[in-house]
Amino acid sequence: MVLELALLDVTPGSEAAFAEGYRKVKPALAESAGLLSVRMTQGVETATRFVLMVEWESVEAHQAFRDSDRYAIWRAGIGSYFDGQPRVEHFTDLS
């Protein structure tokens, strides 16, 4: 299992629109092969900051999503609200 962690900053004043956009395009991500779970959180101190946590079977499953038509739908629904590029990293559990 691999955890994708994405730090997403959105343009001030667009927080509600971003959240609504996320709700609309979440199925494009959630129904992807190799996805185990997905969760989006919003900052308390910094309301323009969101953290996306996605558990994938593998980094390759995440890349397959990024190479798919589903990613274009996903990005079209939320990308216009970004204030800068998202920071995305992958993590694995310690045993």
Describe the model.
This protein is α+β, with helices and mostly antiparallel strands and about 100 residues long. It has one domain (about 1-90): Alpha-Beta Plaits (2-Layer Sandwich). Helices cover about 35% and strands about 30% of the residues. It has three helices and four strands; from the N terminus they run βαββααβ. It has a four-stranded antiparallel sheet with strand order 2-3-1-4. The radius of gyration is 13 Å and the shape is globular. The model has no long low-confidence stretch (mean pLDDT about 95). It comes from Jatrophihabitans lederbergiae. Its EC number is 1.14.-.-. One of its GO terms (molecular function) is monooxygenase activity.
Topology overview:
Layout: E1 2-9, H1 15-30, E2 35-42, E3 49-56, H2 59-66, H3 69-78, E4 87-91
Antiparallel strand pairs: 1-3, 1-4, 2-3
Helix pairs in contact: 1-3
Proportion in helices: 25-40%
Question: Quick one: biggest sheet?
Answer: 4 strands, antiparallel
Question: Which second-level CATH architecture applies?
Answer: 2-Layer Sandwich
Q: Using the coordinates shown, work out and report the CATH topology.
A: Alpha-Beta Plaits
Q: Helix and strand string, N-terminal first?
A: EHEEHHE
What portion of the residues fall into strands of 2 or more residues? Answer: 25-35%
- Provide the domain count: 1
Gross morphology is globular
Q: What's the mean pLDDT score?
A: 96
Round the Cα radius of gyration to an integer and report it: 13 Å
How many strand segments? Answer: 4
Low-confidence stretches: none
The class by helix and strand makeup works out as: alpha+beta
Total DSSP helices: 3
